[in-house]
From TrEMBL:
Pathway terms, separated by semicolons: Cofactor biosynthesis; ubiquinone biosynthesis
Protein family per UniProt: Belongs to the methyltransferase superfamily. UbiG/COQ3 family.
PANTHER family: METHYLTRANSFERASE, UBIQUINONE BIOSYNTHESIS O-METHYLTRANSFERASE, MITOCHONDRIAL
EC number: 2.1.1.222, 2.1.1.64
Positions contributing to S-adenosyl-L-methionine binding: 35, 54, 75, 119
Function: O-methyltransferase that catalyzes the 2 O-methylation steps in the ubiquinone biosynthetic pathway.
Name of this protein: Ubiquinone biosynthesis O-methyltransferase
The reaction(s) this protein catalyses: a 3-demethylubiquinol + S-adenosyl-L-methionine = a ubiquinol + S-adenosyl-L-homocysteine + H(+); a 3-(all-trans-polyprenyl)benzene-1,2-diol + S-adenosyl-L-methionine = a 2-methoxy-6-(all-trans-polyprenyl)phenol + S-adenosyl-L-homocysteine + H(+)
Amino acid sequence: MNADQTELDKFSALAHRWWDPTSEFKPLHAINPLRLDWINQHIGLEGKRVLDVGCGGGILAESMAKMGAKTKGIDLSKKALQVAELHSLETSVPVDYELISAEDLAQREAGQYDVVTCMEMLEHVPDPMSIIQACSTLVKPGGHIFFSTLNRNPKSYLFAIIGAEYVLRLLPKGTHDYKKFIKPSELSQFIRQAGLQMNELMGMTYNPFTEVYSLGRDTDVNYMIATSKNT
C-alpha cells in the first residue's frame, strides 16, 4: 500500500480536532476558501462528479459538495473519515466517504470523475507518482485534476518547517519531512508521464504579520497545479 503508517498515525491522532478552526488544522481552514475558489474558477463545480483524494476530515470535500458537486472523499485514516462522516451528518452536506487507496479505487472506478483533487497529500506518501497516475485513471477524458504540495528548496525549509512548525507554531512539529517535498519541475514531469496536460501553476504565500494567505506567482513554498486529461 502506498502509505506511510507513521504519517497515518500522526494525522489520526489529531483527527478529533480537524474541524476546530483554532487547532493544528487552522492553516487548512484558512487556505480552503482560496483553493476552493481557484478550483471553481477552472471548472465550475456545480453538478460535477468530484473525488477528493486524501480528504482527511473533509474540509475541502464538504466545501465542494456545498458548491453543488456530487462529492466523494477517500483516505486511509479511519479516524479522519469518521470525523468527516460525523461532520457531514451534522451539517447535512452529503459526501460519500470511503476508506480506500487511490490506486484501488482507480481499478474499480476508472474514468468516472469530472474532477479529482489531491491537495496537501503528495508530500506525505512514499510514491507520489503512483497517486498521480491513479488520479489520471480516475478522471474522465477531458476532466480536470488539481494538485497542491510543497516546493523543495532552502526557502521552503525555512518557511514550511522552521517557520511554520517551530517559530510560528502553525503546525505540529514533525508535520512535514523536507525530503518528501516536490519541486514544480518534478511534479510537472510526473504529470506528463501520467498523460495529463498542465494548465496553470499557482503559488500560495503566507504573511505572518497579517496572518493572511494569498494566491500569486510565488511558488517557492506552497504551490498548486491545475491539469486536464486530453480527450
